[in-house]
Amino acid sequence: MHLAGYRALGLPFTYVPFRVTDLGGAITGMRALGIRGLGVSMPYKQEIMPLLDEIDPLAARIGAVNTVVQEDGRLRGYNTDCVGAVRALEELGPVKGARALVLGAGGAGRAVAHGLADAGAAVVVANRSLDKAEALAAEVGGSARGADEAKHAARYDVVVNATSVGMGEIAAESAGQRLGAPLRQAELRPQTPVPEDAMRPGLVVMDIVYKPIETALVRAASRRGARVIHGGRMLLHQAARQFELYTGERAPLDAMDAALREQIA
Ligand code: ATR
């Protein structure tokens, strides 16, 4: 996505993946080499925070940094996942004033709930472990429920799946590779965190799971006439926000989207 964006705008930048085992060393290297920007993935989104000079207030509240920008030798950390979620939703309409149900209170759920609350939505956090839902709901001024609140999806304007449910195939595949074990059929069964009959026409349903692009939730929501946003859209918009932070230019969304589709098709 980033390379496609640079190409589209004729910017002389590149973006390369590094497999990092020494995070402190990587940050020292970034400073020494004058690298402009860094995208941070799991498992380093929290661990990187004390190594930076400044943390954007929203990233500090979420407690995770996925983007670092170097300016005049100072490293500032941002979280673009929350902006990505809000922009993806706002393509379909304003988030302000919407009743939003966020399923999940892990790293992704935290970014989505903070982003939506900041954008003016009334947020309900539902999670399998209620204590995590309660803690996150308190942070964002919302309320907490157990995971079975998904049964009442039709009461909301917007439902976001920020759990890992639906990533079954991929999770099972990598677990199988790690253990050298054959995949069991049950592990591959598509799962949806929201029962199909709980959704209704007009409900906005966003899945943060982007692989497979057509998750069981996306398919069920479409069958019910809901307005569906697949996980690739949030991924695109969070990368677009990174692109803006790295380059100071407006992100060429179409070029970046085409590159993303090629990768996750
Ligand atoms: P991520 O960074 O992708 O959010 P995470 O921090 O491990 O990953 O969070 C995973 C989320 O998916 C959590 O909200 C988790 O619920 P718990 O906090 O109760 O563990 C949720 N989750 C994972 N598997 C689930 C399942 N089978 N049913 C319901 N929720 C599930």
3D structure, described in words:
The protein has 265 residues and is an alpha/beta fold. The chain has ten helices and ten strands. The chain has helices at 2-9, 23-33, 57-62, 81-90, 107-118, 130-140, 168-179, 216-223, 231-247, 253-264, and strands spanning 37-39, 54-55, 67-71, 74-78, 99-103, 122-127, 143-146, 158-161, 204-207, 227-229. It has a six-stranded parallel beta sheet with strand order 7-6-5-8-9-10, with helices on both faces. Strand 5, helix 5 (107-118) and strand 6 (122-127) form a beta-alpha-beta unit. Helix 4 (81-90) crosses helix 5, helix 4 packs across helix 9 (231-247) and helix 9 (231-247) crosses helix 10. It is globular and about 55 Å long. 43% of the residues are buried. Residues 170-178 have low confidence and may be disordered. The structure holds 2'-monophosphoadenosine-5'-diphosphate. 2'-monophosphoadenosine-5'-diphosphate binds at residues 104-109, 127-129, 132, 147, 163-165. GO terms for molecular function: shikimate 3-dehydrogenase (NADP+) activity.
